[in-house]
Write a structure and sequence with these properties.
Distance between the termini: 31 Å
Protein name: ABC-2 type transport system ATP-binding protein
Strand content: 25-35%
Family: Belongs to the ABC transporter superfamily.
CATH superfamily of the largest domain: P-loop containing nucleotide triphosphate hydrolases
GO cellular component, one term: plasma membrane
CATH architecture of the largest domain: 3-Layer(aba) Sandwich
Domain ABC transporter: 2-236
GO biological process, one term: response to antibiotic
CATH class of the largest domain: Alpha Beta
Radius of gyration: 24 Å
CATH topology of the largest domain: Rossmann fold
Strand order of the largest sheet: 6-7-8-3-9-10
Helix content: 25-40%
Length: 298
């Protein structure tokens, strides 16, 4: 298990911030084997700083990062797969050659590096682009090469900073499938993303960070349960004032009135709705991750 505990980091100040900037203020979470963990937050919330500390690119002012119960060290990080937000590919090198090169840097022999590269090129739909220079590839294909570089040495942990940024749906599916395969093999995967619908679809657990603090963390189902369910009632052509006195908020879209509430007697609400007009929908809904995120960072 990868555990991050009470990470704190302050960057030195400048003319506009003489006291410095607090980037992390006690970030803690854990990613278990075979778990996909979504790390979400606004720009500047602390996601990239956390990942850089995990990978040893930055040093925390305090706090710990442990892997399998011991402090994370250089040798451990060599067995991690890392995809930075700022892509680190050699633009004039051919795609296949590049993946093999990084495999060799991670200690694979020439034959193993080629074998792993062939497999990844096929899995990520890049076989026909093997001999293309990276700079000639589309953004989506460059992202696939970057992911292949992170995967080529069969890492024990994957740490991916905005891996789905700017990708079309086909490329998103290709990357998502590759990550799910690694998870099924027991690899902990942590990735940051602004695409909350994608995080909700892929992730077992989620951490929401705001201003350097973890404001919510847990499984998607637990976070939903903590927010509570919402009753949604859609009535077409209702009588005026039909929802007066009922809890919740009513929105109007043409001849459809939608009541959303977390309180009240659902049977009484249903009776009022049926009496008022044609009920098109009556049901309890769980909050989306987007709604949970907005509530958590408010």
């Amino acid at each position: 298990m990868l555990e991050i505990s009470e990470l704190r980091k302050r960057f030195a100040g400048g003319p506009d911030a003489p006291g410095g900037k607090v980037a992390l203020d006690g970030i803690s979470f854990a990613v278990r084997p075979g778990e996909m963990y979504g790390f979400v937050g606004a720009n500047g919330a602390g996601k990239t700083t956390t990942m850089r500390i995990v990978m040893g690119v930055l040093q925390a002012d305090s706090g710990t990062v442990t892997w399998q119960g011991r402090p994370l060290g250089y040798d451990d990080r060599q067995r991690f797969g890392y995809m930075p937000e700022e892509r680190g590919l050699y633009q004039k090198m051919r795609a296949g050659e590049q993946i093999e090169y990084f495999g060799r840097l991670h200690g694979l022999d020439a034959q193993a590096a080629k074998r792993a590269t062939d497999d990844l090129l096929e899995r990520l739909g890049l076989t026909e682009r093997r001999n293309d220079a990276v700079q000639a590839l589309s953004l989506g294909n460059q992202q696939r090469v970057q992911l292949a570089v992170a995967l080529v040495h069969d890492p024990e942990v994957l740490v991916l900073d905005e891996p789905f940024s700017g990708l079309d749906p086909i490329a998103v599916d290709a990357l998502a499938t590759a990550l799910q395969e690694r998870c099924r093999g027991g690899v902990p995967v942590i990735f940051s993303s602004h695409q909350l619908e994608l995080v909700e679809r892929l992730c077992d657990s989620v951490g929401i960070v705001s201003a350097g603090r973890m404001v919510a963390t847990g499984t998607v189902s637990d976070l939903r349960a903590a927010e509570g369910d919402t009753l949604r009632v859609v009535v077409r052509n209702p009588a005026p004032g039909w929802a007066d006195g009922l809890p919740g908020d009513v929105t109007v879209n043409g001849d459809r009135h939608t009541l959303r509430t977390t309180d009240g007697d659902d049977q009484e609400i249903l009776r009022r709705a049926v009496k008022a007009g044609h009920v098109e929908h009556f049901g309890v809904e769980q909050p989306t991750l987007t709604e949970i995120f907005k509530e958590a960072v408010a």
